[in-house]
Amino acid sequence: MSRTILVIGATGVVSSQLIETLRASKGDRRLRALVRSEQKAAALLASGVDVKIADLDEPESLPLAFEGVDDLWLLTPPGPRAPENNMNAIWAARNAGVKRVVRMSAIGAAHDAPTRNGRLHALSDQELQASGLRWTILRPHFFMQNLLGFAAGIAADGNFYLNTAHGRLGMVDTRDVAAVAAAILLDDSKRHDGQIYTPTGPQSLDLTEVAEGLARVLDKPVRFVSVPDEAVRAGSIQAGLTPWLAGMMVEYGRAYAANWGNFTTTHVKDTTGRDPRRLADFAREQWPREAPR
Ligand SMILES: NC(=O)c1ccc[n+]([C@@H]2O[C@H](COP(=O)([O-])OP(=O)(O)OC[C@H]3O[C@@H](n4cnc5c(N)ncnc54)[C@H](OP(=O)(O)O)[C@@H]3O)[C@@H](O)[C@H]2O)c1
After folding, report:
1. Other CB atoms closer than 10 Å to residue 57's CB: what's the count?
2. Contact, 224 vs 287, CB < 8 A?
3. Would you say residue 266 has pLDDT above 90?
């Protein structure tokens, strides 16, 4: 009988690309998406995906969405409630008889990680590892798609600002993260059980090199300006982030400035058989042609 995959975070960056990849695959799978509201479910419903309305903040809403699920893609949004969201999902999975969980964690997740997000992900990774369910964990590097947050500023004056100084990052295209997740979810063998993968891109770049790469594709000057931590905090809050998320941004920038992210892995190729996309591929294929407002 065909297996049912439940995708959490289906309106978000990685999970929406995962749904696209799973739908394009020839695998014999039933696909279900967990979405928080009817309104947000509309596009998915129109494309024929089985959608269940539920919320990881509300454990009572979960059993119906998890019923009959074999494989779970477990993604939680960053924030102080992430471990609670993860716990609610794992509890619902256990009760529903889910067989395998593929969990989205983050680069360097550990109890002594330099970011609050990495330390919280370590708690959730550990809970899954102790759950008795089959598991695989992805700890991707910095997403190239994060750079899209700078697109409006770059369109305006060519500049973008972070506190990463000369630190290098093996940043990854989220489409490759989704491809890794799909390859695992579609694999009926147990070879990914108990594995932790860190998908990265093919190059470790500092943000001045990123600016040069964007400039080549956009055919206009682009300049990275390294700024102090407090400028990133203030700018993030001004852009609408909560103080918690602004603090997380500062911590990542500081860690990257110390070259914490200066590495690449072969995990995209190992799991998908394909080389990861380069920054230039991302910029050519995903950078907005019109200036975002
Ligand atoms: N950004 C990076 O560089 C990076 C790198 C490595 C790992 N990560 C990890 O990646 C994850 C985020 O992935 P992403 O960027 O693809 O996510 P995203 O685009 O921010 O989307 C988050 C998704 O979670 C859903 N969601 C939020 N709260 C929910 C709740 N209470 N119940 C159910 N669904 C809820 C959102 O739904 P709505 O549409 O309803 O809001 C949305 O679909 C985080 O765990 C982060 O730590 C990020």
Report:
1. 11
2. no
3. yes
Calculate how far, in angstroms, residue 15's C-alpha sits from the geometric centre of ligand 1. Answer: 8
Residue 154 identity: I
Q: Is 165 in the pocket of ligand 1 (CB under 6 A)?
A: no
Question: How many whole angstroms separate alpha carbon 81 and alpha carbon 71?
Answer: 23
174: left (phi over 0), alpha (psi -120 to 50) or beta: alpha
- Residue 48, pLDDT score: 87
Cα→Cα distances 34→62, 125, 127, 142, Å? 9, 21, 21, 25
58 Cα nearest atom in ligand 1: 31
CB 170 within 8 A of CB 261: yes
Q: Given ligand 1 and candidates 53, 76, 87, which is best to mutate, with the most ligand atoms within 8 Å of its CB? A: 76
Distance from CA of residue 189 to its chain's centroid?
A: 24
Query: How many other C-beta atoms are found inside a 10 Å radius of the C-beta of residue 7?
Result: 26
* Among protein residues, the one whose CA lies closest to atom 15 of ligand 1: 13
Q: Compute, in angstroms, the gap from residue 225 CA to the centroid of ligand 1.
A: 27
Can you give the pTM of this predicted structure? 0.98
